[in-house]
């Protein structure tokens, strides 16, 4: 469920790729409207417990104040610490107990487990609401090439992200379960943020933190993060500033991304640079299909490869390792390209097939991601449900691929879009093991697995023995789903090229304007190789 639509007027440019590489989000209260559910669960827990506890000298049994007590003792902190600090403030010192103490045990763990059961009950009844502006900012950041992580003391993080359909939007999740396993001190100590930055491969000074709790702002400030942003949902501006926030916003729609991102030079004017980088190296080419090798058209079946592009691909594949990594189904993409001297990765890389360029090792390359196979039943049900639910929406097209279901809305009237979105949201929530992603005028359900075009690219480089310093991988793509591959090449020192008519924030190094330019590049690279 989304909390209103993002209104992007007067956003203040705050994030700049020149200064920052990553953005770390707190969960409850920043991304999801769950802070108030936590506050209610805490209140029920403590009010019930204190009212049942026999009056004892030195103890204060007054009711839990869901404003003051919530912020002072529990907000943003690990659950066990929350129980302990609140009770100590009321003069009650309970034994810690064991992590699996049942909820009726009068121990810190027992009460913590009671609170968690109450929280889950409330979520079950009310569902998860996300802040639309937060999700919008997340998407904008990822398009601009920032890495993202969610960092939370909550042990319910995976459940919340899954139910809210947010888990595809982060490179890393660091939650209360992992923090405990790694023995990291919780907020207000900086350890969880610092660990998450490390997992993203980024120094704290090159990362920003978004937090609504004072404990979280203190943690980020103590960790010397490059930018600490407080989100003031309920009149806490002054205290967020006093605890170390550099800036405070009421909502995330007010946050913009600076357009200082280097304008990507048109690649054809930069051929000299590419050939310099290719000196003594073998290129390995990875190409998206729709929007990269063919122009985007109204109906997916009409996206046919031109004869000249097919020839350019065939010739390039004779000279260098070449794979087409597409969101389309594997059989669909291999039939559309129609060449047998290159590798195809379908369903965003869940399904890979092609000749191994080292036939002495093995004739063919074949991979179906096992975790994707586990999701086949859910995908089948999702496709059937969506076909039925959307049968009367004019223009909608449900495309079943082996490892994904795309719901095309290019020909759907604007007034019907909310209905389609709702059907996709509900279908995803009703089935285990699927996550929602997007694309150009489509919604998509995929196996909820940490696998995307970037991971498929890494897999191919490794399987094809292309990881050495003598290889220069190049990836070309036009869509948000290609940004995952651009980010991988950024890390590996390859060349990534966005195909887009107009410049836009991207993790890619360069931009080409249209598939015609891609064809010219293929011919150029093939010629270079021949001359060498
Ligand atoms: O990763 P790609 O090879 O770029 O595939 C992405 C999606 O491409 C197709 O949909 C897109 O192209 C269609 C034809 O131009 C267009 O009508 C649609 O609006 C685009 O989203 C394909 O149908 C999807 O399965 C792919 O995921």
Automatic annotation (TrEMBL):
Record keyword Chloroplast present: no
Keywords: Hydrolase, Magnesium, Metal-binding
UniProt cofactor(s): Mg(2+)
E.C. code: 3.1.3.12
Biological pathway: Glycan biosynthesis; trehalose biosynthesis
CDD domains the UniProt entry points to: HAD_TPP
Top-rank taxon, per record: Bacteria
Pfam families linked to this entry: Hydrolase (PF00702), Trehalose_PPase (PF02358)
Signal peptide segment: none
UniProt keyword Phosphoprotein present: no
GO biological process: trehalose biosynthetic process
Catalysed conversion reaction: alpha,alpha-trehalose 6-phosphate + H2O = alpha,alpha-trehalose + phosphate
Molecular function per GO: magnesium ion binding; trehalose-phosphatase activity
Family, per entry: Belongs to the trehalose phosphatase family.
Function text: Removes the phosphate from trehalose 6-phosphate to produce free trehalose.
PANTHER family reported in the protein's UniProt record: TREHALOSE 6-PHOSPHATE PHOSPHATASE (PTHR43768:SF3)
Protein's UniProt name: Trehalose 6-phosphate phosphatase
Organism: Halochromatium salexigens (Chromatium salexigens)
């Amino acid at each position: 469920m989304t909390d209103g639509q993002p209104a992007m007027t007067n956003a203040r440019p705050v994030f700049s790729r020149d200064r920052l590489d990553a953005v770390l989000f707190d969960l409850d209260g920043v991304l999801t409207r769950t802070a108030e559910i936590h506050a209610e669960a805490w209140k029920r827990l403590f009010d019930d417990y204190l009212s049942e506890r026999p009056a004892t000298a030195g103890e204060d049994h007054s009711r839990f104040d869901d404003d003051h007590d919530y912020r002072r003792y529990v907000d943003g902190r690990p659950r066990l610490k929350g129980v302990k600090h609140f009770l100590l403030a009321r003069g009650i010192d309970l034994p810690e107990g064991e992590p699996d103490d049942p909820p009726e045990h009068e121990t810190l763990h027992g009460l913590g487990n009671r609170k968690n059961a109450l929280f889950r009950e409330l979520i079950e009844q009310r569902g998860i609401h996300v802040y639309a502006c937060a999700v919008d900012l997340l998407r904008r950041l990822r398009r601009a090439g920032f890495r993202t992580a969610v960092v939370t003391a909550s042990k319910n993080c995976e459940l919340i992200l899954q139910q809210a359909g947010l888990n595809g939007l982060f490179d890393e999740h660091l939650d209360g379960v992992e923090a405990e396993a790694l023995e990291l001190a919780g907020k207000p100590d900086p350890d969880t943020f610092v660990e998450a930055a490390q997992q993203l491969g980024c120094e704290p000074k090159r990362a920003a933190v978004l937090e609504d709790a004072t404990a979280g702002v203190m943690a980020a400030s103590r960790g010397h993060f490059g930018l600490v942003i407080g989100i003031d949902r309920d009149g806490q501006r002054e205290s967020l500033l006093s605890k170390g926030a550099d800036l405070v916003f009421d909502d995330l729609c007010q946050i913009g991304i600076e357009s200082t991102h280097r304008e990507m030079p048109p690649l054809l004017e930069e051929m000299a640079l590419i050939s310099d980088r290719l000196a003594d190296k073998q290129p390995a080419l990875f190409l998206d299909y729709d929007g990269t090798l063919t122009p985007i058209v109204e109906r997916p079946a009409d996206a046919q490869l031109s004869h000249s592009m097919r020839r350019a691909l065939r010739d390039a594949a004779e000279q260098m390792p070449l794979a087409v990594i597409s969101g389309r189904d594997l059989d669909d993409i291999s039939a559309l390209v129609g060449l047998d001297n290159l590798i195809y990765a379908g369903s965003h890389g869940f399904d890979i097939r092609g000749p191994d360029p080292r036939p002495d090792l093995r004739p063919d390359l074949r991979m179906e991601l096992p975790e994707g196979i586990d999701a086949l039943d859910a995908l089948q049900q999702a496709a059937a449900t969506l076909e039925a639910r959307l049968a009367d929406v004019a223009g909608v097209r449900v495309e079943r691929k082996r490892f994904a279901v795309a719901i095309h809305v290019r020909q759907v009237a604007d007034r019907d879009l909310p209905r389609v979105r709702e059907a996709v949201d509900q279908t995803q929530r009703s089935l285990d093991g699927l996550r929602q992603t997007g694309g150009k005028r489509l919604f998509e359900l995929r196996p909820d697995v940490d696998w995307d075009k970037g991971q498929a690219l890494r897999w191919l480089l490794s399987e094809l023995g292309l990881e050495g310093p003598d290889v220069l991988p190049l990836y070309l793509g036009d869509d948000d789903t290609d940004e995952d591959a651009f980010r991988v090449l950024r890390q590996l020192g390859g060349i990534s090229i966005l195909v887009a008519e107009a410049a836009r924030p991207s993790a890619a190094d360069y931009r080409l304007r249209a598939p015609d330019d891609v064809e010219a590049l293929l011919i150029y690279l093939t010629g270079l190789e021949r001359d060498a």
